[in-house]
Amino acid sequence: MIEIVAASPKSEHQFYAAAPLGISLRRLAADKRIAGRICFGNTGAKKDGLPAIFNRQIAAAGREAIIVFTHDDVWLDDCFLADRLVEALKHFDVVGVAGNRRILPHQPAWAFVDEKFTWDEPKHLSGAVAHGANAGGAISHFGPTPARCELLDGVFLAVKASVLAKHTLRFNERLRFHFYDMDFCREAKRRGLRLGTWPIAITHASGGAFGSAQWSKERRVYFKKWKS
Fold first, then answer.
1. Can you give the CATH number for the domain in which 98 is found?
2. Terminus of the chain with fewer CB atoms < 10 Å: N or C?
3. Nearest to residue 151, comparing CAs of 208, 193, 114, 118?
4. What is the pLDDT of residues 81-116, one digit of tens each?
5. What is the dihedral of CA 21, 119, 96, 142, to 10 degrees?
């Protein structure tokens, strides 16, 4: 079973009617290997951070499951998604669609080298992600894929539940909406896991919230942990 995990402020009905991920899951419904594990109505004062939601699903997942951590504004464009994930996880322990082959001091995101959001050199980047309000958006090509990476974009992360259990790998719940992906990748690397990109077609409807107040707050938490 491939479990697609995400949170949405929408109700279940609204999610499957209007959210990019919900529409994508309806489109892929013929493939019985794929199931949505969505936290609906995640909004307001009691809004949970993504790591808490992801960790709950890790605890609930069957040991043979492949878990995909993503966002509700992601279109899953690839009709061969299940087959691609099965193949990708023969080569890597943690799979993404975009990533960086290196980690730099004070790196604020997988693709940027400094807090001015300067892009890293193309030779260090891998993968591709489309962006747009509709499925099949304009594609940003970052670099050759598949490729072994140090960091992966948190827009799409896939890993076997058995690997998470064996290595006691979880998301850091102190990082509610930002930097959790970088922290997760570094914890995975620290446990000796192989991270890499794979050619999987998705479209992301947003470009992130870099520089926001919440982002800046969680940046301090992340840098404090990884200051060495």
1. 3.90.550.10
2. C
3. 193
4. 999 999 999 999 999 999 999 999 889 899 999 888
5. 90
Q: How many domains does one find in the chain? A: 1
Which residue range forms the structural domain that includes residue 140? 2-225
Q: Where are the alpha helices (DSSP H) in 43-148?
A: 50-60, 81-88
pLDDT (0 to 100) of residue 209: 62
Q: How confident is the model at residue 125 (pLDDT cuts 50, 70, 90)?
A: very high
Q: Which two tokens stand for residue 78?
A: 């690839």
Q: What is the pLDDT of residues 12-32, one digit of tens each?
A: 999 999 999 999 999 999 999
For residues 51 and 173, the answer to whether their CB atoms sit within 8 Å is yes
| Mode of pairing for the β-strands spanning 34-39 and 195-197 | unpaired
Residue 27 to residue 214: CA distance in whole angstroms:
34
Residues 61-80: tens digit of each pLDDT: 988 999 999 999 999 999 99
